[in-house]
Amino acid sequence: MRIRGIVGLLLSLFLLGACSAESSSEDQVAAYPKKAVQIVVPWDAGGDTDAINRVIAQELEKELDQDVIVKNIAGGSGVIGAQEVLNGKPDGYTLLAVHDSVAMSELMGQSEFGYFDFQPISLMTSTYDLIATNPENPWDSMEEVVKDAEQNPESITYAASIGSTSQLEPALIQTASDIEFNIVGYDGTAKRMKAVVANDVHLGSVSIAAGKEYMTDNRMKPLGYTGEERSEEFPDVPTLKEQGIDVTSAVSRGLVAPKDTPQEIVNKLNSALENVAENEEFQQRMKELGSEVNFKGTEDYKAFLENSEVEMKNSLEKSGLLE
Does residue 135 fall inside a structural domain? Predict the structure, then answer.
């Protein structure tokens, strides 16, 4: 009888502890966020992903009534910072700023994880690129670049972050125009821009967010735009399609969390981000950065990512980067 009593007592204590732990977990979710939220940007400060996510962080603070801090962890074309969040606690306090490079890195063998090793939250923006060169170079359009490349294969250098969409864009241009660039690897937009400004490399893809100041100061010369239509910020720059190059390409940016983050927290973040996306001030700031607000909630974002992976794989195969 004494043994049964002890066993019963232990079982009661175990159940009480389990109930307390469950209650504590529920309380933490209900109280979220009770401390600062961190957004990891897996690229250097100064790039377009960094600029856009700093605006998102500022607006998200207002919605969550809590500090939202941007932390840059560069390296490995975005892989190092992503890896840190991949291994982070699924508590909603560490998020990852992602774009198409997550799928690109996985498909190219740069990483062993993809979109769905994380918990997607929301898609926020889509951004088309300008293709730029140093003003000292002779070309005034991508048409002229193509003609030069036809006569001098691999003589024109093109800056790209290997395993990111900046590598896909020149590959697509090569395929569409039947030319060959000499693609040179740089880790992140900021370093690619500096290389173009210094004329260490002839060409580079850059968003308006990252390159506007350089072009306004005449340190970069835009040659073409990867959108379906011309940019309102740079209406004199023709699209690639206008120049006979059948290529359009956009970088779509969103936020994800570590796998197994409680759905209640994901829902709360998704709702807050939707409010950010609908804010007119946020929309205006994105326009000034040359980006389009393209909000998709969690379920629609998942479907978008699935389709994006398929399209990217097809593009890589078409460009010869993936066999």
Answer: yes
Type of residue at 289: L
Task: Note whether residue 2 is domain-resident.
Answer: no
DSSP, res 228: S
Residue 211: both structure tokens together = 């390159």
Q: Is 277 helix (H, G, I), strand (E, B) or coil?
A: helix
Model pLDDT for residues 238-282, shown as the tens digit of each residue: 999 999 999 998 999 999 999 999 999 999 999 999 999 999 999
SS3 (DSSP) at 300: helix
Residue matched to tokens 């880790």: 187
**Tokens at residue 169, please?**
């864009």
- Model-wide pTM > 0.70: yes
Amino acid at 274: E
Which token pair is 308?
């994006």
204 and 261 fall within a common domain: no
* Same domain membership, residue 217 and residue 133: yes
DSSP 22-81: HHHHHHHHHH--SS-EEEEESS-TTSHHHHHHHHHHHHHHHHHTS-EEEEE---GGGHHH
Contact assessment for residue 54 and residue 44, using Cβ atoms and an 8 Å cutoff: no
Expressed as residue numbers, the domain containing 89 is: 34-126+251-319
CB atoms within 10 A of CB 94: 19
